[in-house]
Amino acid sequence: MSYRCFCRKLQNNVSHSETSYKETGLNTSAAPAFVSTRRHDDILLVTIDNPPVNALGVDVRRALVEAIETADADPKVLAVVLVGAGRNFLGGADIREFGKPPLAPALPDVCNRIEACSKPVVASIHGAALGGGLEVALGAHYRVALGTAKLGLPEVLLGLLPGAGGTQRTPRLIGAAAALELMLSGRHIGAAEAAKLGLVDRVAERLADGEDAAAAGLAYARELIQAGAAPRRTSQAAALSDRDTTQAAIDAARAETSKKTRGLFSPLKIVDAVQGALDLSFEDGLALERKLFIECLDSPQRAGLVHAFFAEREAAKAPETRAAQPRSIGSVGIIGGGTMGAGIAVAVLDAGLPVVMIERDEEALARGRANVDKVYTGLIAKGRMKLDAKDAIMARWSGSTAYDALSQVDLVIEAVFEDMAVKQAVFKELDRVCKPGAVLATNTSYLDIDQIAASISRPQDVIGLHFFSPANIMKLLEIVVPAKVAADVVATAFELAKKLKKTAVRAGVCDGFIGNRVLAVYGAAAQAIMEDGASPYQIDKAVRDFGYPMGPFQVSDLAGGDIGWATRKRRAATRDPQARYVQIPDRLAERGWFGQKTGRGYYLYPEAARVGTPDPEVEAIIDAERQRAGISPKSFTDEDIVRRYLAAMVNEGANVVHQKIALRPLDVDVTFVHGYGFPRYRGGPMHYADTVGLEKILADIQEFAKEDPLFWQPSPLLLELVARGANFASLNHTK
Ligand code: 3H9
Asked: Domain residues for 707?
């Protein structure tokens, strides 16, 4: 009988003979919320129902143990099937419980209780089986996954390790190399890969319409009963039996982890736990895992990463997303096919939407198309895309030199030269050709969007969508909300961000919005530190040691010194003459030293090297500039540098919140983690400031103000919070 027929038959059987515990009076008073049990002949179907993702909070844990005990005690039950209600199996431990006093039963005990069940337990997995969710499935004796299943042990992304037996059961089941790869990457895998690894026993691909995880699990359990299968305990699985191979895998993982996960606490603990799986009994291995888990749980990195997790979800909930329904987006127009426009086009195409690109002439349009094409060609060259997939994507791309081609698109993103007159001319055309209700977005990174909106007849449709370069890769999308925009346009922008898999942050209109405005201030602090005595190389190193992938001068060399130079020239007339202005970057730019693309900037890049080496000539220029400015250089420790750099960032972050450019401190955190390389494990600058203590940050600012009172003006919000003894977290309104 085919699997499909088998399932159908089973469904028919079930619908005739199904009895619930309530009906039979077996589980009346104890039918707990969060977990429901229902008898299907001699199988107990246990459904975990804790929306939105069936996280394993204390109520679920208690009820799950109760359900297993009931099954164990009931002679009529021959097997148990575990399923999740809704879209997922189990999303893992309840992250909101971390840092609070532990409540029994602990999840490892729940998994052990499931594994100890005297009757076969089947986990039937659809949607997410992540972290503790997968560990519950590993506690079960048999596993079936549906096509929608997404399995993984992503604890490392929260600064943790799988702490409910995952570090012990997974290697025993699938071997140390595969288990370590899963746990160290935190990646999600699909049903087919899980079956290949041996993480699940089978994939239920060929379900009939309307059949679900319950049907698949019941079918599997029925087969097991018929075959007389006994419980099969993962803790006894034998994939670690070849000691030498296992040790080699652990050693390789340790070496690679030490090299790659600089500054992170939990990855090496994962490796230690797997070493325990090899060296110790299962029980002792579990005890080691628990000890290491608690160390991770108590680490500030865990707090930072969990903050980042909730902050990015909270940031996506702007007030307008609650107040209005998004407009529907079936097609997107993009003006400009340069680096930015092409990157945005790729992001939109990747989301499955058609793109109409507008350029000023055929030649520019061909270049725009080529810029898009080359991203996919690159993927093919790396073996990450097939030619037919590329062709299918490019078939959604069309281009024109006439704005009229945009008459039917639902949303337009303008990515032309940063100049108000140029942008206004584009918007005038959009006003002329676009259909009523089309969303008109600008990708400007600092211009006044209110002014752009005011220049056309439909300001309610105008919004800022500030992408970061390369736009198809960088996760951040600042959604910039001008005064007159309609709420449903803002909601549409957030919906688009979801489709593009971007992390959206709501920002208000000001010069630089959240990100570039704050960047301008801590960038200036870095310049001042350099002029006062630290070399750009020391500053970069101090910032890297803090956890950034690159220092500010490396970033400048990568982005191109000409960009900042042009901005400085443009703003020269409006600059406060009293404000300190460090001329070193101008001296480099005047020599044409724009960074990597010119072979030298702050660093030297001989033979197009990607990593620069310090340049004594740059140091000589800096010395000369110090003399010109009458500065006698002083020495800075790396800690001094980081204190100043972060104080400038936090203070301007506070200003941005104070002036309601950012809704909450968490929006600043998300911006810097996703758009500016701020180390995620530190949560973001505002979360970091809370961990340092706001009084300390304020005291630093007041100390630095003795040298430059104009630059180091404490933010009114910082002063207020310190006076109240409050912190930034108190303004976040997260759950
Ligand atoms: C762990 O398991 C430790 C164990 O090894 C050991 C323990 C002893 N808890 O992402 P979404 C909330 S560590 C609490 O937008 P999606 C989320 O905040 C855990 N809440 O949905 C949001 O709330 P709100 C290992 C959670 O469909 C809502 O659910 N597990 C949890 O795009 C919807 O979330 C993980 O790391 C949770 N575990 O994606 C998995 N998960 O509506 C983390 C979500 O108030 N979760 N929420 O904003 C995910 O990756 C995704 O949420 C998931 C669904 C893929 C499940």
From this structure: 516-731
What are the beta bridge partners of residue 229?
A: none
Which residue of 50, 59, 95 sits with most ligand 1 atoms within 8 Å of its CB, as the best mutation to test the pocket?
95
Q: Is 434 in the pocket of ligand 1 (CB under 6 A)?
A: no
Specify whether 269 is located in the same domain as 343: no
Please write down the HEC assignment for all residues of 254-280.
HHHHHHHCCCCCHHHHHHHHHHHHHHC
Q: Which atom of ligand 1 is nearest to the CA of 314?
A: 48
Q: Are residues 73 and 193 in the same domain?
A: yes
pTM attached to this predicted model? 0.92
**Residues 131-179: tens digit of each pLDDT:** 999 999 999 999 999 999 999 999 999 999 999 999 999 999 999 999 9
162 lines ligand 1 (CB under 6 A): yes
With bands split at pLDDT 50, 70 and 90, how would you rate the model's confidence at 210? low
Asked whether residue 672 falls in the same domain as residue 542, the answer is: yes
> d(Cα 471, Cα 315) in Å, to the nearest integer?
19
Query: Cα–Cα distance between 459 and 448 in angstroms, integer?
Result: 13
Q: Residue 168 in contact with residue 289, Cβ under 8 Å? A: yes
Domain CATH code at residue 440: 3.40.50.720
Give the Cα-Cα-Cα angle 145, 148, 150 (nearest 5 degrees).
75
Residue range 57-61: average pLDDT? 97
Residues annotated as catalytic are 135, 155
